[in-house]
Amino acid sequence: MDFFKSFLASVLGTIVAWIFLGVLFTVAIAGIASIAVSEEQVSVEVRENSVLKIDLDLPLVENVPATQELEKALGLSPDILPFSSLIGTIRKASTDDNIRGIDLKVQFPSMGWSQAKAIRKAIQDFKDQGKFVYTFGDYYSQKGYYIASVSDSIFINPVGGMELKGLAAEVLYYKDFQEKYGFKMEVVRHGKYKSAVEPYLEREMSENNRIQISSLLNSVWSTISKEMISSRGMTQAQMNDIAENLGASLPEKALKNGLVDGTAYADEYQNKLKSAVGLDADSKLRILEINDWIKPNSLNKKGIRDNIAVIYAQGPILYGEGNESVIGQDVFVEAIEEAVKNRRVKAIVLRINSPGGSALSSEIIWKALMDAKAKKPLVVSMGNVAASGGYYLATAGDEIYANDLTITGSIGVFATLPNMEEFSESIGINAEYVKTHENSVGFSLFQKPSESFRKNIKEGIESVYETFKQRVAESRNMTLEQVEEIAQGRVWTGTQALENGLIDGLGGFDQAISAAARLAELDEYNLTSYPNIEPEIDDFLSMMGPFGSVETALLKQFPSEIKTFISTLSDQKKGADIQVRLPFSLEIN
Prior knowledge:
Number of domains: 3
Radius of gyration: 26 Å
CATH superfamily of the largest domain: 2-enoyl-CoA Hydratase, Chain A, domain 1
Number of strands: 20
Helix content: 40-55%
Strand content: 15-25%
Shape: globular
CATH architecture of the largest domain: Alpha-Beta Complex
Distance between the termini: 64 Å
Largest sheet: 8 strands, mixed
Number of helices: 23
Structural class: alpha/beta
């Protein structure tokens, strides 16, 4: 027996030692990586007649994760494109006389429509400086072609293809699934357009939900089609006919309908780039990779002390700590307070990319933003989505900006409670309760919520809804009646939000920064980003082991409604969480 105890102790000690050594190794690599990064920050030489190569098929992020450089150094993460740095670098290239043009790759961009519009605008501004933009692709997704359409010349592989079909959104409904298997989501809601919970309640889409999704799709299509036909010299009728009849699916169709300027293989395209620069086919093309030019703080001006703080609020809003991809009150209240205390920070831009979430966390962060606004100008920049809880945060801003394709609004409240009563009974599990008072049980996975419990949740929802409307009314100088007309969970595009008075203007990240500088009376400034999240030991360990990545990959395969059910099951003690969240899982394709 002693032998086995000693053996097990040795094995355990060895495992702990290996983990400890692994962490030390990882930290050492992190140090080496940081040194390498600082060495790389020496400015890249831009030679005469250079072409800037931009690969928009790389992952695009608003706020770079704390572990990114380490993951890249260890070969665990591909290159990424920091959104604001990408926009700034394109602007910088437009004023560099050594850069003649852009070589654009944009086949399957992993970004939202709002980000796509902002990048397209930056490329258009580059082109307006008298420089060329060429694009080549084997295949163009619809979003990829939308960005590519700004180019002077677009080329496609002779055996490639293109997707140009108009817009659609798919919403899955789970009522039959719930009844068949006994997994149910009990729902309490307010607002006739609050359809985040509709998939749990119905077999098919309600008319209200169909109206708002149709309105969104038509607004987005109107914006992107107008820009594409303007760039390609077409009419709206021609573009709609192409989308209706799939008139761009084959390269010869795309060429015939004026969507591309030619077919070519990759080597032939390279010769076209050389010709655009004034080189013959045998000369070497000077390519400047944008990832070699985008460096941390590379766009900052030396000797400038004044800063504008950019607080990146991206991801769902959850009660708790928060990180780069989840908005939690702990991290974000601390970030807001740090920006206020920093004497160099003269104004704050809150960059929101969130469908909302916890009503309580939204209120806590909103209060911190209001306290900050009392001391420094606060401007809101909306990304792809700033809806429900995301819009709740936006109401704290002195000014609010979104672009045409931003999804916002969704002023409404709901709560969901998972219920496994029927499923547990079907597998022989029976829950019994002993209690001192009528409502002692409160929330349980294994019984249907009582009427008194639902009534209590309903009162909470109505209270949050009235508070939400009050925040909007005070921020947008409206009456509560006016807010009610555009609330009830209804979702709007940026264009519609401007018409409804929910935002102050249409514009991207740059416009919000300019507005903050104007309010702070700044002529010159640098940008500094928050929150500054330091990687923890768990981050290093998750990078070393496969299980976290496998779990994440598996969860990604589920629809958001199923993921909501699973995540709620994982924290039963929370009970009903009152939500201010986007009214459905919307992916516009």
